[in-house]
Amino acid sequence: MASIRIISEKCYGCGICLGACPFGAIRIIDKKAVIQDNCTLCGACVSSCKFNAIEMTKDEAGTAGDISAYRGVWVFAEQKEGKVANVVTELLGEGRKLADQLGEKLSAVLLGDGMEAAAQELISYGADNVYLVDHPSLQRFNDESYADIFTQLISRYKPEIVLMGATTYGRSLGPRVASRLNTGLTADCTQLEIDTERRLLLQTRPAFGGNLMATIICPDHRPQMSTVRPKVMKALDPDPSRVGEIIRPDVDIPLDTRVKVLETVTTLCEKVNLTEADIIVSGGRGLGDPGNFALVEELAQILGGAVGASRAVVDAGWVDYSHQVGQTGKTVGPKVYFACGISGAVQHLAGMSSSDTIIAINKDPDAPIFKVATFGITGDVVEVLKALISEFKKRLK
Amino acid sequence: MNIVVCVKQVPATTEVKMDKETNTIIREGVEAIINPYDMYAVEEGIRIKERLGGKVTVLSMGIPSVAELLKTTIGLGADDAVLLSDRAFAGADTLATSYALSMGIGKIGNVDLVICGKQATDGDTAQVGPSLAEKLGWPHTTYVRKIEEIGEDFIRCQRMTEDGYEVVEMPLPAVITVVKEINEPRLPSLKNMMRAKKAVVNVWTADDIGADKNLCGLKGSPTQVVRTFVPVHDISSEMITGDAGEQARKLADKLLTMQFPVGGC
Predict the structure, then answer these.
(1) Which CATH architecture is the domain A67-247 placed in?
(2) Which residues 257-296 of chain A have a CB within 8 Å of chain B?
(3) What are phi and psi of A333, to 5 degrees?
(4) A271 φ, ψ to 5°?
(5) What is residue B228's predicted lDDT score, i.e. its pLDDT?
(6) How far is B44 from chain A (nearest CA, A)?
(7) pTM for this structure?
(8) CATH 3.40.50.620: which residues of chain A?
(9) Taking CB atoms and an 8 Å cut-off, how many pairs form between chains A and B?
(10) Average pLDDT for residues A199-204, to the nearest whole number?
């Protein structure tokens, strides 16, 4: 079995490993580091030790099959009502880079009904080919039939990397498929790189609400699967002159699925879909009064943005939970994020700190939100919001 | 209705405090709690039991000390608690965790519904629920915000999506993962707290659940963490001064000279 141990002769009891351990599983006892029972064998301490006093051994992996047969990079092209999700073009942009580094093809996998034109568009965004499964039963996302078909395709064509959006659907389909294939899946990645020597995908993702980053590999199993956070990767400019092949593979389409999607209800206007919005104006308790939240909504409307909120005001009932940004709500990454009267609790920061430009408006100059802000404004939130509304009304005419 | 709720022990805060000099994590005095999302799962399980009758078993995988924590769920109204604890489980990624949990659920037997929180606050992966469903061979629905109806052999629920929700129906047995909107967890009752005090948590090893050790823990985990680091926010903050009017004007100047993606709804 895998094990970790402190080489007692080399350990000086300096305690650096205590800080490196994300699980608090190391103690210093009699001036030596001792690994406790709650160690998860993550190995974070090994590299932290300046004296090479921590040794970790891992057993040879089980029978993982021949991984060299797996080639190419795939992107799952999630669609809703025939419209391909924005994250897909971002994944194609990133996937293009990875495929070029590996010297392999980039393919998109598109399941839906009447999606030929959309498939062509995926090629213009960088795909070399598109595996298109077009069938009336696939019009809506269904965990069961989608997982079934996607697994069939992966087993047949053997891609080495599979990228999916870290969306509601992607984060449900991904683990289902990875579990069936008994391969690794890394959730909500914000950075992908290739270790060209070993042909490994280095997947970096936030954990502990964004307070710790971890780089994860999947060395012995294929495909290497990642869900990728929307709005982090950059899409290429579409090039309609790009040529690629649309492949219509022959697959078994499960028609009598146990999971039945009876109804799809859209409650937010498309422009204000938080996870896809370019601009978000969020309000927090610093607004003082629920009535003042209307100012947040007004500024959002003028800018054509979405309305976000901190947990505090959602819990207080000022605005619906679907607007909540943060660890217990939605993770967003707009081009511009306004935090109005939000102090910036770590849980909130976890949901929005990857925004391109952050504007913090708060009366307390020491509020943690200013630490992540591109532009900070200290002052009365209500006054500043009113001024911003009238300024933008004037300027955007 | 025989319900299993899966819970995970996590640190009470995700606030990873850093020692600025050594750039390492300060871990002193961080209390362990049950993952907050899992508390909504426990509550929902108890509510279903109260409506339909049956039993709620809380299931976790972790170090022996997690057993004490599981007792708190009995204080809330769960009937039984099971802890999978074995060195063979250490270092499990989401795949190996799902496998072990599925074997635990197999041993509990005759389970109709498994409820998980949408994700845990330490790993934030949200993968164990769907992965577990696959290992069990059962259908699943994630991000459930409301159970519209549940009967002997089916469940109809609302799954939260980016722009609304969808109504999904599945036959039982099935797995759901729940978001915090689904309910407001109760406080423990005095009667249940007394029961929790006396409760004995079943601790099962890999052998007890008949698990293949090659599929457990680090050995059964395709993914490996190769590096952890604390993100550096190298943000050059700029404070905008003046009265509200000036501040608004200066900010608009700055934003409008950037390629400001203004649109209308």
Answers:
(1) 3-Layer(aba) Sandwich (3.40)
(2) 258-276, 278-279
(3) -150, 60
(4) -65, -25
(5) 82
(6) 17
(7) 0.82
(8) 67-247
(9) 337
(10) 96
